[in-house]
Amino acid sequence: MRTLRLYNSRTRRKEIFTARDGRVGMYVCGITPYGVTHLGHAFTYTFFDVLGRYLRHIGYRTTYVQNVTDIDDDILKKAREEKRNWREIGEANTQQFLEDQRWLGNIQPDAYPRASDHIAEIAALVKKLLRKGAAYEKNGSVYFDARKDAPYGTLARMSHQKMLAVANERGNHPDDPNKKDPLDFVLWQAKKPGEPAWDSPWGAGDVQTSAGGVQTSAGGVRTSAGGVRTSAGRPGWHIECSAMATKYLGETIDIHGGGGDLIFPHHESEEAQSRAANGKPLARWWMHAGMLRYRGEKMSKSLGNLILISDLKKRYTANAVRIYLLSHHYRSSFEFFERDMKKAVEREQTLQRVWRLQSAAGARLDPASWRNAFYKALADDTDTPQALEILEDMARTIAKTKTKTTTDAKAFLNTAFSILGLQFAFQ
Fold first, then answer.
1. Beta 233-235 vs 283-289: how paired, if at all?
2. pLDDT at position 313 over 70
């Protein structure tokens, strides 16, 4: 296997990637489908699609899991505002997301679990944390005790004050009277009027799940065998990913990824609760994509400053959008400008000329130097901007010299396009 160096957000440096027995488990935090897909989503998921393609290309047996947070505060808020069923909203936006991903050329992950289908696993993990003394119950809700996790904050490298400020921006509810500390986060939220609730090990809910849930007796709040008093309800935000990642990939996975805005509190909290439950880190590599800005601010559904994939479809090809995204290194943050999309169209046309000129007469082309440079770029923290430049240079050389593309050159270009997910190829 080729040597691969990947940047690890935990250590803040590039490290040589290794995997046990040639197997790689990769978990990437997916969407919360209370709104439609935008270009910021596409940037994150297109990068991890390329990483998965490249890992498989160099010989790793890769299992890629991407979740859907289909039950949370944002979806329930949207349901109340629009007077619609929360499942209907989540499913409609999830299907739109999947359609957008197919159009972009992203391969569907090996598993695509929804939080609402894994209530049993989530409840079991909450129960385990209670048993280990890492969590506590108050008035039917269960919270993680952040004060008992000494490394809490080391992934994000934030001070206590900074963590609190960021967490409060992202639904932390610091004034929750049930908390022992403002940084404690909810693992299981007691049922609220008008909200869906599931069976837990401690009480009966009112929502059926395809995973079967946890069968309990009716009666709401009761005392468990462990003496913990709580009730039916729904999962907190962070606990779902720990439960699903563990189910599909084991207690320690190889790569855990997502957008850079998830480092804190989401990934920090995932790591803390998994460490408390299993006595080991959740992930060997943490990888985070940069943020896409528009009109001076981070592109986000909450701000409404969105470039929608559905709108880009009307004006550009999937190849052009993909080239635009891959022209930026995955760890970079950048501003969207329409002029950069036009540059991506020009780059697409340059690459298309390669296969249009495949029958041209002239000297035969040796692709060795470009091939070596291409793989070197991808081996260096998946440097897609450099990889694209190398393919463009090859295309320009062919066009300028009217060089005949050999079978070897065609094979390399087909492979390179496939790794980058570009949807044109030699016949």
1. unpaired
2. yes
